[in-house]
Design brief:
Shape: elongated
Helix content: 25-40%
Structural class: alpha/beta
CATH architecture of the largest domain: 3-Layer(aba) Sandwich
Number of helices: 9
Strand content: 25-35%
Radius of gyration: 19 Å
Distance between the termini: 34 Å
Order of helices and strands: HHEEEHEHEEEEHEHEHEEHHE
Largest sheet: 11 strands, mixed
CATH superfamily of the largest domain: Periplasmic binding protein-like II
Amino acid sequence: MSGPRDLDRRAFLTEQARADLASTGVLRAGINYGNAVLATRDATGELRGVHVDLARELARRLDVALALEGHPAAGDLVDGLMAGRLDIALLSTEPSRARDIVFSPAYLEIDATYLVPPGSPCRTAADADRAGARLAIAAKSVYEFFLRDHLRHARLVAAPSTHAAFELFEREKLDALVGLRPRLEADRDKIPGARILEGRFMLVLQSIATARGRDAGAAYVRDFIGRAKADGVVAAALERHGVRGVSVASR
């Protein structure tokens, strides 16, 4: 039975918004499990994490079924939106992708920085951009787009996923691994003596993206994000999954 809170949550839901977000009658949500801080896929293929919880909450408020589609890299989600295979994608905000898809306001913000091996002379994130340095990075990640425009001296060496970037960093003895601070903290524990550099080179924002041309759906998602932050839904998801080093976006 619906109460006043449920009615309030549906205040901005129109049939056009529901059609935009569940064109097949099901909300098809793309999840980037390469960002293991916010989503993972277990041995059975089941997806879990903060992004999954938010997708489920959005489907609940739309009153439609949910179909999750996991991918190891954000680029696959963008392709899925543009091809019409996905209705939404939970991923990092990237200005260059905004030409093709629509990003909601951010619901989370995370520091992006570097992990360096034992003996590295680098101390701060700015130190990583030095002549001859090779930096392992996940291809088509939001920080790859940023660093390709901002690095002056170091060279990026791309791998197809976040996990593959870590393996590349170890195998090829590269100078640094690029990533989100919470993920780098987990990777640091795998390499005795490795360090995370002080500071950050960018703040990564997490959003829900929709395909262009679905204006009513995008407007509903925008409203959903604002309510999910205000109602404590986002903060509760972080707490439920024990996520640290990630903040609810204030903007």
